[in-house]
Automatic annotation (TrEMBL):
Keyword Signal: yes
Biased composition (Polar residues): 95-108
Lineage: Bacteria, Bacillati, Actinomycetota, Actinomycetes, Kitasatosporales
Cleavable signal peptide: 1-28
Entry keyword set: Signal
Organism: Streptomyces buecherae
Protein name: Uncharacterized protein
Domain of life per record: Bacteria
Region Disordered, annotated ranges: 86-108
Amino acid sequence: MRNPLRAVVISATSLVLLGGLSAGPVVADGQHVAAARKFVCKASADRPHWSKGAKSVIYKTRVECAGSEPTIKVRCKGQLIYAAGGSPSTAASSDETQSVKTDGSKTTFYTPEAGGKKVKWSGKFQGSTHCTSPGATVEIGDATTPVVPVKVP
């Protein structure tokens, strides 16, 4: 089952919309809307898997944006959660900020991030990411994967 994606539109006031990308005008109030910066972003996460290149269990968060700015800064904090027999625990994490183009193309954030902790054991894993736009201090939303078994070769 796919998780719903959250999108954010920035105008004179902040509005949170659920659904796909739309760069259409949003009128929150009658003043300052024409001069306001506007963008819409959504985040999604791929299932955790073994990466030959990273030599680790990883998952990817993909962020896509549309809007009147050519790029916006997006910060994503991710957790790769190991679901063992007891309580779930964080196997690796990430905290990364990237410039994301607002042309609808996807930008990828990795957990664990490059140079981060390697996860080299098999088990059940889940990815959970929280993304914001630091410059506008706006919540873009969360992306969560299902719990999936990953076998390390």
